[in-house]
Specification:
Domain MACPF: 1-344
Number of strands: 15
Subcellular location: Secreted
Oligomer: single chain
Number of helices: 9
Strand content: 15-25%
Organism: Didymodactylos carnosus
Distance between the termini: 33 Å
Structural class: alpha+beta
Main location: secreted
Keywords: Cytolysis, Disulfide bond, EGF-like domain, Secreted
């Protein structure tokens, strides 16, 4: 994880959670709820377009903006998700090679053995390598991803921002902000450099801590279609691969099942697996044994974000007569940064061979090639298929009737 921002809140770790599943201290202005233990099952998500990718991410991330900045365009980039504290190995459920999101602010964390060490999280989609990996696989490499995961939730920690104390650094930067000409270069640069640059523009209000084991498999759509035409369920094979790697619900397979799994794995382009939270995974033990270690070292697996301009109000800045205008200015600059970013593509679509266009999701762009070119960067000449005429064989007449085979498409 990288790109952590400065603290927005000054949190004091001296609150003992009442009737809780932990005796560790939590910050003032927060509430901790224990998540009841339930049966753990592995789930597989098939990600083959931007819609299914956004659905997958929404399972882990809730964005409460309350303004017209949505997930279906350049979204929460370089987020300052700041609840305060020090670092702990963290991450989130994420169908990408790097399970910590980039560009972030600090999250809740304990300092010292007497405190509940809850990790910290980052969140950045616009230019992150993680989202680029997924969208590039889908759009440019004609591939599908299968994201299989099993997770356990331990506690849910919520921040009540109305009672939390803003950090002195954040308060000073807001108080010193020039106001109130939104077109003035000094004001715009101040917001970019000292507010968004230092603190990002979101903060965490809720997080679920636990552990997750996950595997992401990338397979070309051509290979996927050949598997489906033969009646094999790719999602089932992806989940079986997860079970064998993590020793989770694994049972000895017969020869036919083993052959199908090996055939599936032979068609896989790329595969990644990881764990987040808990102790180091012992390959000689079952995954359920690893889940028992999660309470001693939980990581963030789900979280909720809010924009920092929601904090700029009379309650937090009672003496600042321009505070509402400052909030609006920060919102406007944020919108400009998100929606006016430069559109770029690999090799600039080889200049005259195509045009670089945004796909409307997560600041990702794609080459639209001219009719005579093809490829992710329009660098290849399109192959024109040749046609030939072959005489049809004479029909064979037999005295018996045989049922014709019926082709069946199996959708995984």
């Amino acid at each position: 994880m990288n790109g952590f921002k400065q603290l927005i809140f000054n949190l004091t770790y001296d609150k003992v959670p009442v009737g809780s599943c932990t005796d560790k201290l939590i910050p003032r202005g927060t509430e901790l709820f224990c998540v009841p233990r339930s049966e753990i099952r592995a789930k597989t998500e098939k990600i083959d377009d931007t819609r299914t990718f956004l659905q997958s991410m929404a399972n882990s991330v809730s964005v409460q903006f309350g303004v017209s900045i949505s997930l279906v365009n350049p979204i929460v980039g370089a987020a300052g998700a700041a609840l305060g504290g020090a670092a702990s190995g963290g991450g989130t459920k994420n169908p990408t090679p790097d399970n910590g999101s980039g560009g972030a602010g600090s999250g809740i964390a304990g300092i010292g053995s007497s405190l509940l060490n809850l990790g910290r999280i980052g969140f950045s989609f616009g230019h992150s390598s993680q989202s680029t990996f997924v969208l590039n696989s889908i759009n440019n490499q004609a591939s599908t991803l299968f994201h299989t995961y099993a997770e356990v939730s331990f506690v849910e920690l919520s921040l009540f921002e109305q009672t939390a104390h803003l950090s002195e650094e954040f308060r000073t930067v807001i108080q010193e902000m020039p106001c109130c000409d939104g077109t003035d270069a000094e004001t715009v640069n101040y917001i970019k450099d000292y507010i968004i640059g230092y603190f990002g523009y979101t903060f965490l209000t809720k997080m679920v801590l636990g552990g997750v084991a996950q595997q992401t498999i990338v397979i070309s759509n051509d290979n996927l279609r050949s598997m489906q035409s033969s009646g094999d369920s790719s999602s089932t094979q992806a989940q079986l691969s997860f079970s064998t790697i993590f020793n989770f619900g694994y049972q000895n397979m017969n020869n036919e099942s083993t052959t199908k799994l090996n055939d599936f794995l032979s068609k896989v382009t790329t595969a990644y697996s990881s764990i987040t939270g808990g102790s180091v995974l012992d390959p000689n033990k079952k995954l359920n044994d690893w889940f028992l270690t999660v309470p001693s070292n939980p990581a963030i697996i789900k979280y909720t974000l809010k924009p920092i301009f929601a904090l700029l109000n009379k309650n937090n800045f009672p003496r600042d007569r321009d505070i509402e205008t400052k909030s609006e200015l920060i919102l406007n600059v944020t919108r400009t940064l998100l929606f006016n970013s430069k559109v770029t593509c690999d090799n600039d679509c080889n200049k005259q061979n195509g045009k670089c266009e945004p796909i409307g999701v997560l600041q990702f762009n794609k080459c639209t090639c001219k009719s005579e070119f093809e490829g992710p960067d329009c660098g290849g000449a399109k192959t024109v298929p040749t046609t030939s005429t072959t005489a049809a064989p004479a029909p064979v007449v037999t005295s018996s009737t045989t049922a014709l085979p019926v082709a069946v498409d199996y959708v995984s």
